[in-house]
């Protein structure tokens, strides 16, 4: 009788431990300036909602580079892995909703990548080389022609639509098959 009670207690504890593990869901945060919550695992599927940077998500499943998630307000759908992270992004008080992640958030949240950029990096690239970079280039003897060519490239402005088109045509990121 005592052994049966111990077995029942053990099974009950084991059962509740399994249930607790199953119920515990992985949490992710949106790290891009915006991320689309899609109805299906495809860029072409309907957008359920636009998620802002810092939005907390509960993971329900993962399949082919897409997470099935639910938001705190009950919306459910699929989000591309390059738009989210296991680490909550730091959001300053003065940060605008459309900043963070650089280039419209296309680079800041790349999963498995160390590529990070922010609005300051983007602005710096528009101005050309920083004073420190110019001093280094002069010190190391980088020809003025090369510095001028780099300044010209850094001053180019590329629209967000052009970047999206490039990613789509190259099957990069969320467009990868």
Compose a concise summary of this entry.
This protein is of the alpha+beta class and about 180 residues long. It has helices at about 1-25, 120-125, 130-140, 145-155, 160-170, and strands at about 25-30, 35-40, 45-50, 55-65, 65-70, 75-80, 85.
Number of helices: 5
* N-end to C-end Cα span: 60 Å
CATH architecture of the domain at 2-97: Roll
Radius of gyration: 23 Å
Query: CATH homologous superfamily of the domain at 2-97 - what is it?
Result: SH3 Domains
Shape: elongated
The share of residues in extended strands comes to 15-25%
Strand order of the largest sheet: 6-5-4-1-7
Poorly predicted tracts of residues: 19-23, 96-126
Description:
This protein has 177 residues and is of the alpha+beta class. The protein has a domain at 2-97: SH3 Domains (SH3 type barrels). Helices cover 34% and strands 20% of the residues. It contains five helices and seven strands, in the order αβββββββαααα. It has helices spanning 2-23, 119-127, 131-139, 144-154, 160-169, and strands at 27-30, 34-38, 47-52, 56-63, 66-71, 76-80, 84-85. A five-stranded antiparallel sheet has the order 6-5-4-1-7, with no helix packed on it. A two-stranded antiparallel sheet has the order 2-3. The N and C termini lie far apart (60 Å).
């Amino acid at each position: 009788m005592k052994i049966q009670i111990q077995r029942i207690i053990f099974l009950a504890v084991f059962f509740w431990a399994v249930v607790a593990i199953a119920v515990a869901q992985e949490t992710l945060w949106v790290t891009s300036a915006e991320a689309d919550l899609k109805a299906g695992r495809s860029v072409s599927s309907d957008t359920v909602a636009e998620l802002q940077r810092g939005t907390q998500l509960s993971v329900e499943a993962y399949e082919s580079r897409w997470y099935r998630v639910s938001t705190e307000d009950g919306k459910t759908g699929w989000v591309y892995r390059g738009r989210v992270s296991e680490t909550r992004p730091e959001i300053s008080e003065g940060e605008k909703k459309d900043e963070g992640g650089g280039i419209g958030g296309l680079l800041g949240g790349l999963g498995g990548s160390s590529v990070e950029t922010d609005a300051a990096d983007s602005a710096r690239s528009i101005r050309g080389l920083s004073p420190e970079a110019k001093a280094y280039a002069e010190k190391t003897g980088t020809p003025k022609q090369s510095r001028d060519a780099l300044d010209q490239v850094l001053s180019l402005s590329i629209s967000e639509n052009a970047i999206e088109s490039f990613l789509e045509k190259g099957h990069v990121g969320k467009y990868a098959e």
